[in-house]
């Protein structure tokens, strides 16, 4: 995949992006965009090989050349949107399942197929009190074979028998991200409605690890700010962050 091919795939949707780059290799697409203090709104960076990727809770990973898609987009949201930042990771997860219809979302935005992780998403922000910058980064497993998976509970599009053409996935994701970020920007109720429909965490017994504490209960809803609501023995609790484990299928 190269930039001309990607622009051709995007067609008119490419006009939404001020800058669109495809590189053979980098350390981290998120870090690269955050390091560019003057990068314009909607700067997109895609790497065919990422050597120092990071996930939530600062988990580290390296992508295999041409077998994973590392894609990041920098946004410069208005200051009024800072209070709505908790919904942006959910919007990013929705964008991925808009492209990969077979997938669902584990709160907040792990993309799963059959309980196996296909894609991780990391949203990072800077200068929120002055001139906000936010980078949405996605790492999609395209063509990894089983022995190449980073963890046993991961999967790839190839292993699931799904078309994994890099240009198709990247173009679809960029278009879907633009649609979902627009919903986030204007406060569309469709964003949370669609998220609840695609979130496989809701209705399940879960374990939430947060700040050294482990809580178990039934995930019942997602709040207007993107937090997970869990009915626990102590009552209904709200989690804006945490590591969620699904304990058993929904009943």
TrEMBL record:
<keyword id="KW-0436">Ligase</keyword>
<dbReference type="GO" id="GO:0005737">
    <property type="term" value="C:cytoplasm"/>
</dbReference>
<dbReference type="Pfam" id="PF03099">
    <property type="entry name" value="BPL_LplA_LipB"/>
</dbReference>
<dbReference type="InterPro" id="IPR008988">
    <property type="entry name" value="Transcriptional_repressor_C"/>
</dbReference>
<feature type="domain" description="BPL/LPL catalytic">
    <location>
        <begin position="1"/>
        <end position="185"/>
    </location>
</feature>
<keyword id="KW-0547">Nucleotide-binding</keyword>
<dbReference type="InterPro" id="IPR004408">
    <property type="entry name" value="Biotin_CoA_COase_ligase"/>
</dbReference>
<dbReference type="InterPro" id="IPR004143">
    <property type="entry name" value="BPL_LPL_catalytic"/>
</dbReference>
<keyword id="KW-0092">Biotin</keyword>
<dbReference type="GO" id="GO:0004077">
    <property type="term" value="F:biotin--[biotin carboxyl-carrier protein] ligase activity"/>
</dbReference>
<dbReference type="InterPro" id="IPR045864">
    <property type="entry name" value="aa-tRNA-synth_II/BPL/LPL"/>
</dbReference>
<dbReference type="Pfam" id="PF02237">
    <property type="entry name" value="BPL_C"/>
</dbReference>
<dbReference type="InterPro" id="IPR003142">
    <property type="entry name" value="BPL_C"/>
</dbReference>
<dbReference type="GO" id="GO:0005524">
    <property type="term" value="F:ATP binding"/>
</dbReference>
<protein>
    <recommendedName>
        <fullName>biotin--[biotin carboxyl-carrier protein] ligase</fullName>
        <ecNumber>6.3.4.15</ecNumber>
    </recommendedName>
</protein>
<keyword id="KW-0067">ATP-binding</keyword>
